[in-house]
Amino acid sequence: MKIDLHTHMLPENWPDLRERYGYGGFVSLEHHAPCRARMLIDGKFFREIEDNCWSAKRRISECDGFGVALQVISTIPVMFSYSAKPADGHDFARILNDHLAGVVADHPKRFVALGTLPMQDTTLAIRELERCVKELHMPGVQIGTNVNGKNLEDPEVFPVFEAAQALNAAVFVHPWDMLGKDRTSKYWLGWLVGMPAETSLAVCSVIFGGVLERLPRLRIGFAHGGGAFPGTIGRIEQGFLARPDLVAVDNQVNPRSYLGRMYFDSLVHDADALRYLIKLVGAERIALGSDYPFPLGEAHPGQLIESMDDLSAQTKARLLCGTALEFLGLNKSNFT
Predict the structure, then answer these.
(1) What's the chain's average pLDDT?
(2) Which of 266, 288, 311 shows the shortest CA–CA distance to 69?
(3) Which of 69, 167, 214, 242 is the least crowded, having the fewest Cβ atoms under 10 Å away?
(4) What is the pTM of this model?
(5) CATH class of the structural domain 3-335
């Protein structure tokens, strides 16, 4: 069984948000050709997408071709809308979450959803988290690596993590609003360099901010194999040891101690990188993630794992299915 932890989905249509809220900054969808649409932000082109971004039927067909039994669907990070007024962000999050829940209700054996939250307002974020878990029966949520420039150890973010632990909800962290945007507009560097750096920053913020010390039962996972974090853990640890006066100001626990406490997806695009990640954190903390349906993802979900002859059948099964089930707190029997 293959479970793809990291996939993105949109509604085929949603309200005109500029008209709904009275200001701009939101994404709209322009269906300009059969099975194709343009994502626009205030009329400016952002991304071209195909109907596998909204069509459950096409997704299921493609999943059947890939051998993927279950997709974990979440919104595209540009839809987070953390810069919106809190009430508007909450309203839009509800629209997106209701759509995802509807897809799951229509195809309960093929999809599981992670909700989105209006993270710009702690109270509203917790309220929507509770609705996602209790009313929409989602196993968790997806959040961004920062909230309008606030890192994930920020006092306004921590209560959301606290509520997630209390609700036994998983939190999947996806890079967005990457640092260094003024220097990464060319060569797609925001995605190639900015995203890995942004994800590492989020991991380090959680570690050095003592989030996992205060919330030992929190299940938190990071997209894209943790970005640059696994490859720089040696430097990160050395900084902790050499300059605790600068690094260990909020948490005196060695960052390497947390390697087995966090989850990562497998989207590293390189067999040696995946071997290293397995050695670093264990297959028990890595779940198949493809970033479907986008071109920077794994075109055939799970192909890298399946191609690695040095991995045992048990390890492959854990990577392809077992870790995702544990991270989400789900039972395999519900989908077979």
Answers:
(1) 97
(2) 288
(3) 242
(4) 0.97
(5) alpha beta
